[in-house]
Every structure is written in structure tokens, then in C-alpha cells.
Design goal:
The chain is mostly beta strands and about 160 residues long. The protein is built from two helices and nine strands; from the N terminus they run ββαβββαββββ. Strands 1-2-7-8-5-4-3 form a seven-stranded mixed sheet. The protein is globular and about 55 Å long. The N and C termini lie far apart (about 100 Å).
């Protein structure tokens, strides 16, 4: 019998979850364009279901395991015209802060992975990268502040 449907690629284990990777079928640089830093959102904490406890709505309680899947950063894509959120898997929050990346400064992401998840009849795309760094050869962002000067010169 013929196989019908799309082949979304291989599965990749990232921390506690398995993701269907679709990066191979994408031209990632063309899809993302120029990437500029927006900020560090914080750690993506891993939760597990505690089936011994229920919420008032009948769902199971989610318990924090204390583990971190990665650090979530906001990155603006010039092609997508929006801020995308990438989980940086191989760097700590302090390592990212130590890079001294400024707001709107151009960055590079290493080993970008685009993953697909289908949850509750919704398609969700998760973005991962192993590392973030300042773009080589990028000019530093200069914040321009408009300074109004009043001329109060009086001739005596």
C-alpha cells in the first residue's frame, strides 16, 4: 500500500522530549534572514505529570523537575517580520549574558533545528540552536538619542 502524507523527517531527543525535525527540508537562512537580538527570556524548565494529583478541572498536576531544557532568547527575523523564540541548548544563561549582546545587535545561531509538534489539533513549531554569538563583522548598534537644546543666549 502506498504511503500517504508528508515525511517530517527524523526524530531528535532534546532533554526530556522527542521532536520531529523538519530542518532538512528548509532553507533556514532564506526563511529567517538577518537575525537581531531582542533579549533573554529565561530558562525553559522541564515539568512532568504527577498522576497522583489532579487539578480542579480534572487534569493532572505538572511538577517542576528542576531540570532546564535550555535558555529561551528572543531573536527578531527580518524575513518573518517578528520576534521568534529560540531555545539555546548548549549554553547557560550566564554564558549568554557574558557575550554582552546588545538589543538589536546582529547575531548568529549555531546548529539551528526547526521541530514540528502536533498538539490538540494544532501545529506548533519549536526553534532550537546549540549556541548564540555576535555576528562576525557586524557593526555595534548605536543608540541614537535626540537631544533638544534650547538656545538661551542673551547678548549683554
Amino acid at each position: 500500500m502506498a504511503k500517504i502524507g508528508l515525511n517530517y523527517g527524523e526524530k531528535l531527543q532534546i532533554a526530556d522530549k522527542t521532536y520531529r525535525v523538519i530542518t532538512e527540508g528548509l532553507d533556514v537562512p532564506a526563511i529567517l534572514g538577518k537575525l537581531t537580538f531582542r533579549g533573554i527570556e529565561g530558562p525553559e524548565v522541564i515539568f512532568e505529570v504527577d498522576q497522583s494529583q489532579r487539578n480542579p478541572d480534572g487534569s493532572f498536576v505538572q511538577v517542576n523537575t528542576g531540570e532546564i531544557r535550555g535558555i529561551v532568547v528572543g531573536i527578531h527575523s527580518s524575513v518573518q517580520h517578528e520576534t521568534l523564540f529560540f531555545t539555546i541548548a548548549d549554553m547557560s544563561e550566564s554564558e549568554i549574558e557574558d557575550l554582552g549582546i546588545k538589543y538589536r545587535e546582529e547575531v548568529e545561531l549555531e546548529d539551528i533545528v526547526v521541530a514540528h509538534i502536533h498538539v490538540n489539533n494544532r501545529d506548533i513549531f519549536k526553534l532550537f540552536a546549540s549556541k548564540i554569538k555576535k555576528k562576525a563583522g557586524a557593526t555595534p548598534v548605536k543608540e541614537t538619542k535626540e537631544v533638544k537644546q534650547t538656545e538661551n543666549k542673551k547678548d549683554n
